[in-house]
Amino acid sequence: MLDTDFFRRWMTATAAAVDREADRLTELDAAIGDADHGSNMRRGFTAVRDVLEKEPPATPGAVLALAGRQLISTVGGASGPLYGTLLRRTGKALGDAQEVSPAELAEAFGAGVAAVAQLGGAQAGDKTMLDALLPAVEVLADSFEQAHEAAVAGASATIPLQARKGRASYLGERSIGHQDPGATSAALLVGALVEASAQIAGGGA
What would be the CATH architecture of the domain defined by 2-201? Predict the structure, then answer.
């Protein structure tokens, strides 16, 4: 079972991963966007980490709801509302439970991903964060490792696609040949689940 501490570790691990990869995210975004995805995501998840330290929520759902609100208030562009919606909707689906199973997390995360799709009007193959999130959701209940692998593969699969949503869609065929920065950061979020669960196996190390 996954408790509140696990979800705090998930967000902290995400913040660390985004910090490590911020330059790469910005480099990817420079090719087909506004060259600010890395800095925006770093600012947002740093704020999430800080607020969770100052005001530790009592339940897994509350952790994600607070994280989502923080992202919406601190991240510019489309990323804030999209990631904020993802986490808030996932947290809402988890309800007030003190602990949740991986299967329950997978179902709730699926609801969050569906909310992102509705908000952005995107679907698989549009060269967005959904190209990493949708394959991850399909196997999330089986293992976090499989979900991460699926997300990374989904992000890589955006390279030959032409963007149909978001800032990159303005480029038309020129968006082909570049990996989507949103899908790349989404894979970092999923990968942080692996890190958070590894800390459980390692006795909290």
Answer: Alpha Horseshoe (1.25)
Two tokens at 85? 């919606």
Per the structure block, which two tokens stand in for 6? Answer: 């696990």
Is 93 in contact with 111 (CB distance < 8 Å)? Answer: yes
3-state secondary structure string across the chain? CEEHHHHHHHHHHHHHHHHHHHHHHHHHHHHHCCCCHHHHHHHHHHHHHHHHHHCCCCCHHHHHHHHHHHHHHHCCCCHHHHHHHHHHHHHHHHCCCCEECHHHHHHHHHHHHHHHHHHHCCCCCCCCCHHHHHHHHHHCCCCHHHHHHHHHHHHHCCCCCCCCCCHHHHHHHHHCCCCCHHHHHHHHHHHHHHHHHHHHHCCCC
* C-beta separation of 96 from 59 below 8 A: yes
Q: 107-159: per-residue pLDDT in tens?
A: 999 999 999 999 999 999 999 999 999 999 999 999 999 999 999 999 999 99
How remote is the C-alpha of 135 from its chain's centroid?
A: 13
Where residue 165 falls (left for φ over 0; alpha for ψ -120 to 50; beta otherwise) is beta
**Where are the domains positioned within the chain?**
2-201
14-38 per-position pLDDT tens digit: 999 999 999 999 999 999 999 999 9
Strands 99-100 and 2-3, how do they pair? antiparallel
